[in-house]
Amino acid sequence: MQTKRSIFTNRWLPYVLLAPQLIITLIFFIWPASQAVTSSFERQDPFGFRTTFVWFENYTRVLSDPSYANALWNTAVFAFGVVAVSMGFALLLAVCVDRAIRTARLYTTLLVWPYAVAPVVAGVLWWFLFNPTIGLLPYILEGFGYDWNHRVSGGQAMALIVIASAWKQISYNFLFFVAGLQSVPASLSEAASIDGAGPFKRFWTIIFPLLSPTTFFLMIININYVMFESFGTIDATTSGGPGQSTTTLVYKVYVDGVAGLNIGSSSAQSVLLMGIVIFLTFIQFRYVERRVNY
Amino acid sequence: MVENRPWLDALTHLVLVVGVLIVAFPVYVAFIASTHEPSAFVRGVMPLLPGDNMVETYSRMLGEGLELAGTPPVWLMLTNSFWMAMIIAVGKIIISLLSAFAIVYFRFPLRTLAFWTIFITLMLPVEVRIMPTFAVVADLGLLNSYAGLTLPLIASATATFLFRQFFMTVPEELMEAARVDGAGPMKFFKDILVPVSITNIAALFVIMFIYGWIQYLWPLLVTTQEQFYTIVMGIKRLMAQTDREPDWNLVMATVILAMLPPVLVVLSMQRLFVKGLVETEK
Questions:
Q1: Per the domain annotation, does B172 fall within a domain?
Q2: Distance of alpha carbon A248 from alpha carbon A229, whole angstroms
């Protein structure tokens, strides 16, 4: 790993400088994480007096539990929904802003602020709009003969959290798509238009393929967001229901650990989640390497 | 723009205007709801035009809170959120500046190990280590304190990497000149390195302030006393009144007040915000 060519020489100062960060990391990150790994191999009796080492029993139990498979499936559907809705909408808006040069700044200002809205607040906002008794959207949907009640219908509950989460994430995706579009050389578009390609054809054959690094990067970021930060959105709107139809992996860790006090199972799930984060981070860094070369 | 196509320009603006309206719509409805009396929500569908109860609703929430739901005045929760976000943002920046300085400007045993230890925090978001972290904080007696609210969120691999990357681009001559003039490492850090990093610090501050403000799960776990409630978690308490519909006007007023500060930060420092966002993800 690099340092500067010329460096300071001091025997103890670098350790002092690193101490605050490392102490916090060790106490609040590394130690709890290792605790999670340890207790994922143990079982506590109901009163918490005795713990026994049970090898992989917690893992086999979690992985063979249909409700875990259900949470995994929900997370996948949720992630797919948010990625599709949020990135699609953001890309459309980014392409438009890229065309509207003179007013780009104004539109950007009007589109970036949802980033600062807490996920739980985003959940409450959409929950209010979709409220089955007084909500505006169910009222409109009823006019089309569609009955909305996300307290009963699992599919509608999932749609609600997808919309609320996608809404909050639009600004982020939008900003990165705008940056991506600006880095596509204008000469390519010009050359294609001289060859007679219209704007739509130019977008699909030239610009969209050149955006693929940005698209891929955003996919990873959005999956990460759905997996972890969406906790507040779910807790505020559906609390994982109805009938576990919106219980995602993170929500299940919380329910089993904090509410159910099943430490062994919750820890095993935490460790599995860490595995997923490590995998995502690995992909992200591989990708960053590639983007530098690109 | 490559060629002149008036109809496409018109379509572009149409899409953007519709997009802006869709994005703003939920907040508009929430704001309208907060200006009405509770009776407006009893019959039929929610109102879409402002009511005349705005001053009353907001002053009640800011000043008294909702005793029934066990929430303190919004004013208190806003103050807590503000300090939590400030401590997290400033804390992250200070400890990351120091560790990046150590990693870039010194060569010492275990340097790589220290770097990787910090790197690992990237893979441990608070959501995956909820229970054991809670246990540690409880053992240290930090429940219901600002230290408990902020310390477990304050380590930052992202900020450390950002500063490391930036320090690598700072010209070598600056440091050599400082040394010729007899400045020690801390003097160089304070008088040269921090001043040249100020834009990066500001950009990162915007992002980290928002990060701190929108925290939900962690404050929900570590605070049981009303005096430490943050606004974002307080909303959940407001909604969770048993056996009755929430008081929509009061909930929505709280929602508006909860989003106002971070949204204003983003809007007033848009350039720094975009810079921070793009750079922290590299």
A1: yes
A2: 11
**B73 and B168, same domain (yes or no):** yes
**Structural domain includes residue B1:** no
**Is the Cβ–Cβ distance between B125 and B187 less than 8 Å?**
no
- Same domain, yes or no: B48 and B85: no
Which helix (DSSP H) or strand (DSSP E) does residue A44 occupy?
strand A42-44
Number of independent structural domains in chain B: 2
Residue range(s) defining the domain that contains residue A33: 13-53
Q: Please tell me which of the candidates A4, A134, A231 has its beta carbon nearest to residue B127.
A: A231
Tokens read off for B214: 């929108």
Residue B189 gets which letter from DSSP? I
B57 CB contacts (<8 Å, ≥6 apart)?
B34, B35, B249, B250, B253
Q: Do residues B101 and B179 share a domain?
A: yes
Is the predicted pLDDT of residue B58 greater than 50, yes or no?
yes
Whether residue A105 sits in one domain with residue A33: no
Residue with tokens 């595995």: A275
Within a domain: residue A2?
no
* Residue B46 and residue B83 in one domain: no
Mean pLDDT per segment of 10 residues, for chain A of length 294 residues? 76 92 92 86 73 83 88 93 95 90 86 92 91 83 84 88 94 92 86 85 88 87 87 87 87 83 83 87 70 40
For residue A44, list its beta bridge partners. Answer: A51
DSSP label at residue B107:
-
Chain A: give the shortest CA distance to residue B66, in Å. Answer: 18
Whether residue B46 is found in the same domain as residue B75: no
Give every CB contact of residue A9 below 8 A, 6+ residues apart in sequence.
B106
Is the Cβ of B190 closer than 8 Å to some Cβ of chain A? no
- Measure CB to CB from residue B131 to each of A171, A236, A263 and give the nearest one: A263
pLDDT of B122 higher than 90: no
Give the residue from chain A lying closest to B45, CA to CA.
A134
Q: Alpha-carbon distance A74 to A154, whole Å?
A: 10
On whether both A48 and A141 belong to a single domain, the answer is: no
Number of residues assigned to chain B = 282
pLDDT of residue A293: 36
| Nearest residue in chain B measured CA to CA from A86 | B23
Q: How far is CA B146 from CA A118, B74, B223, B225, in A?
A: 20, 18, 10, 12
* CATH code: domain of residue B150: 1.10.3720.10
pLDDT for A161? 93
**The residue type at A99:** R
Domain contains B232 = yes
8 Å CB contact between B250 and B60: yes
- Residues B242, B110, single domain; the answer is yes
